[in-house]
Write a structure and sequence with these properties.
alpha+beta; 2 helices; extended
Length: 138
């Protein structure tokens, strides 16, 4: 076991074409757990006749004081990416000396599709997402 592996508590990987995403829960020297997300991308730096592959890596470290804000932003972003409605940004606080702003007319409400009713005959086991697994660790 090398120096970087001994602080590893949990690891999950996701293969996506030429990329692999690693989600690692690690422990710092002071005992705090943090999340390290790594994207590893296979790149051919050679020629088609003489390929030479290297792996380009990008890392993101997420610390415990940011978990909640990160999760909120990630869930909101994934909802929009899956076709959800883009949420309105929160209004910025006005300076104390400024005149009160006139509120715009409210936008018409978007129709809400009814939720599908669960089928009683099918008993599927609940599949935990990676984020749920990580939440259980912390």
């Amino acid at each position: 076991m090398n120096e970087t592996d001994k602080d590893l508590i949990f690891s999950e990987s996701v293969k996506a074409g030429k990329r692999i995403y690693y989600f690692d829960v690690k422990q710092s020297r002071n005992g705090d757990k943090y999340l390290a997300i790594t994207e590893s991308k296979k790149i051919n730096e050679g020629t088609p006749e003489n390929p030479h592959f290297v792996y380009e890596k990008h890392k993101l470290f997420l610390y415990k004081e940011d978990y909640e804000k990160f999760m909120d932003a990630l869930v909101k972003t994934l909802d929009v990416a899956k076709g959800g409605v883009i949420p309105e940004p929160a209004p910025a606080a006005a300076p104390e000396n400024s005149a009160p702003a006139v509120a715009p007319a409210p936008a018409p409400a978007a129709p809400v599709a009814p939720e599908p009713k669960p089928v009683a005959d099918e008993a599927k086991p609940e599949k935990k997402s990676f984020l749920d697994k990580v939440k259980d660790i912390f």
